[in-house]
Amino acid sequence: MRFATVLAAALLVPGAALAHTGHGSVEGLAHGFAHPFGGLDHLLAMFAVGLFAARLGGRALWIVPAAFVGTMAAGGLAGFEGLDLPFVEIAIALSVVAIGLAAAAGYVPPVAVAGAFVGFFALFHGFAHGAELPEGAGAVGYSAGFLAATALLHAAGVAAGLAGPRLVRAGGIAVALAGAVLVAGAV
Known about the structure:
The protein is mainly α. The protein is built from eight helices and no strands. The termini are far apart.
């Protein structure tokens, strides 16, 4: 209960801070920060990355989320530029299943493999964020917003995962099952 309260407060406080004008591209930053929370697919996949990193432990606690954020930034740039990336929606839905299952599984791949695994899906998430840049929002602020929100969701997943392996397993299974519903809706 305490974790849920802290997470809710962390999610609400940045929105209040962005209510003031005159601080750069607030509109882009606010829209970008809100974007990952607007879709269950993004929310679940990013949380699952944190669970997966917690399952792996050690350097993976920061390398796996950093691989996701870095590759997502590249995907966002491709989306901003109007490049074409096929199967974006289905890849995002599949990412929820795949990363959820990776978190739930007992297999521990090398950190580089885990980073490449989440990075593959991050490309699609970033592309979707970039392609959905709101009219008039600054791309830099918008990007900073969705990258910050993603890092926050990863941190929440890591924090939840560090509570114990049973929570990682149960959380991963729940995410994967929700992802299966999303995949069914995307096909």
